[in-house]
Amino acid sequence: MNLADKINQPVFHHVGNVADSLSRPCYVVGGYVRDIFLHRHSKDIDFVTVGSGIEVAEAVAATLGKGCQAHVFRNFGTAQVKRHDLELEFVGARRESYSRDSRKPIVEDGTLDDDLSRRDFTINAMAICVNADEFGELIDPFDGLADLDDQLIRTPLDPDVTFSDDPLRMMRAIRFATQLGFSIVPETFDAIARNADRIGIISRERIADELMKIMASPMPSIGWELLAKCGLLIYILPELDAMRGVETVNGRGHKDNFYHTLQVVDNVARKSKNVWLRWAALFHDIAKPVTKRWDAKLGWTFHNHNFIGARMIPRIFRDMRLPMNEKMKYVQKMVELHMRPIALVEDVVTDSAVRRMIFDAADDIDDLMTLCEADITSKNEAKVKRFLDNFALVRRKMTELEERDRIRCFQPPVSGEEIMEIFGLRPCREVGTIKEAIKNAILDGVIPNERTAALELMHDEARRLGLSPVSDTL
Predict the structure, then answer these.
(1) Which residues pair with 248 in a beta bridge?
(2) Angle ∠(401,402,407) on CA atoms, nearest 5
(3) How far is CA 320 from CA 58, 156, 314, 397, in A?
(4) Of 199-208, 373-382, 411-420, 458-467, which has the strongest mean pLDDT?
(5) Closest C-alpha to 172, from 150, 154, 145, 194
(6) Nearest-CA neighbor of 456 among 471, 432, 434?
(7) pLDDT (tens digit, 9 = 90+) per residue, 432-442?
(8) At residue 145, what are phi and psi to the nearest 5 degrees?
């Protein structure tokens, strides 16, 4: 098959001409070729040449004009050339072999067939020639194009060897299936299950990279369900794996919290591209296995699972090599607060309760409401409608109170420094007591969120504590 029209761009003709001048066969390979058929745009282009890829890269850079140079990585036998918004990667064709305890291959020079056969999946094992005489010719030794048409993920060679050699490919198989909506062929999937324990030699950072791509996919549940079914999940995130299954006592079972969680994640994904809100959805019930209790009167209970789950988040993020920064704190906050809106709709929606929820969630209040609405997964349509109607009531009340009381970006009308100056105090418990009294009075609607009312309450609280002002200037 000739695909000259698909790569009829100056960059491919330029690289081909340089390769011809060096008498080097040269091909565009891998993900860029796959994405041509998937109609996906990519700015990263991988080239394989028979011989030194570094030599071709340096020659390409030299002909692209002043300021363009090849960045060489000799340890890996690769070189990179950046031109405008394109990133060109060059490598010589190679064959690889692996030792049992490492995914770092022993690399030798090889043919194009050697290079394509070492690749992870047939859909990534295609090449297109850029040399002038065969420009646009497709090389597809493993029928990757047919697998693209059939939307299948399979390995070019024996999947047990493929996954044992480089266990990260198991994660990549599941990531591609999730991103593209493809199916993993049974023999390939069964090999993942047989080699699942090999994932232990892969760094947590590389696993986290694949998980982030799964979470950014249109339906992240596909990936998490595949991870559970093939046995990888228990090695990657045992706390989530522990949520699988239903326990029954006296004929009463709880819902499968794992599949409920996956539905919540997908519900969030339909509403938001915020990947950290999706992580919050994944972890919102993470403490249910450790808080699960059977009560003869109440049935199954999961008391305080939101608070205990929030305490689990830092350790989970650390173990998974997810960022230990404001992203982690955001997820932790969402997990801790996710029961608050539900508690509101199950009770009388008071102004005070809504104010406190807005105060605690601050700028993340809209994300919190999105998470809580996504958490409604009942098959009882009447129940779902009742909850959503109540959430709509909460949202209306939030809007009214926010416009009136400015709670979301709450700043106390009287600062701690002012309290200390007025009453001649150093930092002490009494200052905190007065500040807390003012905050609670505003959140409970006892006083408006304004300075005059706050000063009056400050003096009342100070008298109760036996304090007298030393200055009347404020």
Answers:
(1) 253
(2) 105
(3) 39, 30, 10, 39
(4) 199-208
(5) 154
(6) 434
(7) 999 889 988 88
(8) -65, -40
Q: Which of 201, 30, 211, 33 is nearest to 120 (CA)?
A: 30
Q: What is the pLDDT of residue 474?
A: 47
Q: How far apart are CA 136 and CA 260, in angstroms?
A: 48
- Residue pLDDT, tens place only, 270-300: 999 999 999 999 999 999 999 999 888 888 8
Burial of 101 (0-12, 13-18, 19+ CB in 10 A): exposed
At a CB cut-off of 8 Å and minimum separation 6, what does 394 contact? 341, 344, 345, 349, 354, 369
Task: Give the tokens for residue 305.
Answer: 């699972």
Looking at the DSSP bridge assignments, the partners of residue 82 are: 87
Write down the pLDDT at residue 97. Answer: 61
User: HEC string of the chain?
Assistant: CECCCCCCCHHHHHHHHHHHHCCCCEEEECHHHHHHHHCCCCCEEEEEECCCHHHHHHHHHHHCCCCCCEEEECCCCEEEEEECCEEEEEEECEEEECCCCCCCCEEEECCHHHHHHCCCCHHHCCEEECCHHHCCEEECCCCHHHHHHHCEECCCCCHHHHHHHCCHHHHHHHHHHHHHCCEECHHHHHHHHHCHHHHHHCCHHHHHHHHHHHHCCCCCHHHHHHHHHHCCHHHHCHHHHCCCCCCEECCEECCCHHHHHHHHHHHHHHHCCCHHHHHHHHHCCCCHHHHCEEECCCEEECCCHHHHHHHHHHHHHHHHCCCCCHHHHHHHHHHHHCCHHHHHHCCCCCHHHHHHHHHHHHHHHHHHHHHHHHCCCCCCHHHHHHHHHHHHHHHHHHHHHHHHHCCCCCCCCCCHHHHHHHHCCCCCHHHHHHHHHHHHHHHCCCCCCCHHHHHHHHHHHHHHCCCCCCCCCC
Per-residue pLDDT of 72-92, as tens digits, reads: 888 778 899 987 778 999 999
Q: With CA atoms as reference, report the closest residue to 442 among 356, 364, 357, 362.
A: 356
Distance CA 189, CA 174 (A): 9
CB count in 10 Å sphere of residue 415 = 12
Contacts of 119 (CB under 8 A, 6+ apart): 30, 125, 156
**C-alpha to C-alpha distances, 292 to 260, 308, 424, nearest whole angstrom:** 15, 12, 52
For residue 93 the two structure tokens come to 């064709």
* 245/258 Cα distance (integer angstroms): 7
